[in-house]
Amino acid sequence: MSNAKQNRYALIIEKIFFNHYEPGLKTFEFLRSELSEVAEELGIKLPSNLGDVIYSIRYRTTLPESILALQYDDLEWIIEGAGRGKYTFSLVKVNRIIPNENLVTIKIPDATPEIVNEYSLSDEQALLAKVRYNRLIDVFLGLTTYSLQNHLRTTVKGVGQIEIDEIYVGLNTNGCHYVIPVQAKGGNDQLSVVQTKQDILCCKEKYQNLITRAISAQFITDDKIAMFELTVEDDQIKLVKEHHYQLVSSNDISGDDLLFYRQTSN
Fold it and tell me: What whole-number distance in Å separates Cα of residue 260 and Cα of residue 105?
């Protein structure tokens, strides 16, 4: 995304924030329609996709410095959906989901078809494809899973419209059924606590008889993927577990590697 577009989005969000903010406030709502109103007021060309303004601020860039200056202690401002056409600015506890650099890397024989690697058009789509072809959801969770749909757009009560990157269903040896929302991020995009909470709320609302297990995946390098299982506790996203997988040729997995995996699995 160009700096010009980032600056344009930041100006719109900054104006909306200070139209509502008062000292001491920790949460307040604003309407989607305000994006258009503020853009016109500031003489800014309106983005064709209004949702891209919110998406960019959430995942690709930071909030304007004037808003960040109003954060304190371990609290930060986030934007959440609050219903159809509504959003909420909330001051919440800082909660970063980033790969643990000290975690061991597990080598996995790369089953991604070469033609898929050749023609993948985006980091997010490439990541979802590699997770799917290498059955990393199964490996990570110890379940048998199946991709149900990707880029599922739907609405959630009290949140509004959301999009889940990919959703899986699966089962275990006892016959329990699971629904598994997957959030994928590549490039400079950050894994989002907001998106994870929305994914979990959606699955609990629409798949009430299934067990929800939320997964986030992120490229560390082109062939190394961090997998996270996340949950909600005390209205905060908490890390359940994290593994790192490196996709390699089967020839690159040595006997020593297999011995190490066997020892660490006990």
Answer: 11
Residue partners of 138: CB distance under 8 A and separation at least 6: 144, 145, 170
Instruction: Measure CA 194 to chain center.
Output: 8
CA nearest neighbour of 201 among 184, 214, 192, 190? 214
One CATH from 2.60.40, 1.10.730, 1.10.20, 1.10.10 for 3-93: 1.10.10
Residue 236, token pair as written in the block: 């905060």
Reduce the DSSP state of residue 68 to 3 states and report it. Answer: helix
Q: Pairing between strand 27-31 and 86-93?
A: antiparallel
Calpha distance 87→106 (Å, rounded): 40
Residue ranges matching CATH 1.10.10 in the chain: 3-93
Q: Cα separations (Å) of 171 from 110, 208, 209?
A: 24, 15, 12
Using the structure block, give the residue that is written with the tokens 């990541």: 127
The tokens for 44 are: 């800014």
pLDDT tens-place string over residues 95-150: 778 899 999 999 999 999 999 988 887 788 899 999 999 999 999 999 999 999 99
pTM of the full structure: 0.81
**In this structure, which amino acid lies at residue 127?**
L
Beta strands in the chain (DSSP E): 27-31, 75-83, 86-93, 105-109, 144-156, 160-171, 177-185, 211-212, 214-221, 224-233, 236-248
pLDDT band at 1 (very low <50, low <70, confident <90, very high): very low
